[in-house]
Amino acid sequence: MTPRQTRSDAIANRDRILTVAREAFADAHDTSLTAIAKQAGIGIGTLYRHFPTREALIVELYRHDIQQVIDRAPALLATLPPLEALRAWFEEVARYGRLKYGIAEVIHAVTDGGLDDPFYDPFVHAIGTLLDAGAAEGTLKSGLDPEDVLFQLSVLWKINPAKNTEARASRILDLIVDGLRTPSAGAR
Q1: The pTM is what?
Q2: What range does the domain containing 180 cover?
Q3: 106-121 pLDDT, tens digit each
Q4: Do 39 and 69 share a domain, yes or no?
Q5: Number of domains, the chain
Q6: Is 3 exposed, middle or buried (0-12, 13-18, 19+ CB in 10 A)?
Q7: What is the CATH number of the domain that holds 18?
Q8: Which of 2, 161, 176, 177 has the fewest CB atoms within 10 Å distance of its CB?
Q9: Are residues 151 and 126 located together in one domain of the fold?
Q10: CA 116 to CA 93: how far, in whole Å?
């Protein structure tokens, strides 16, 4: 018996729900599922068919978005020098932090505070890939621990998006990158 194909309209509805939910949760983490369905132009029953709970929707957003962030690391390294790739990737992480700000409690509950998070190791590996490339080029200190850098980046999840998020995130990223670079690489 072959599995049923998902209808193209169902796929489009699911994608639209995720797009609307991402924007809605970034603006106000307490946005109702009814409001998301209305903004997506679908009925609440359609939303619940795809995501039976608020938690299920948040977890799917997390899975989708964190994988995109992870996948960007090698793509950036393929097109930019390591130090620029690192900074560009950190900016992607900061943008992702806007979403996570309002829904972090749900993600942490589902992943047991990150201990059961299947994306933790790939995320740390992405950081390590960027750090290793910068160290090989001589623009980043060698021997940096990717988990230490992750802990530094985790402050991005705590920036209130209603309070000049981009400027604050940029200043914090400057501090982090300046601490990672070799003295010969100079400050930004």
Answers
A1: 0.82
A2: 54-185
A3: 777 777 666 678 888 9
A4: no
A5: 2
A6: exposed
A7: 1.10.10.60
A8: 2
A9: yes
A10: 20
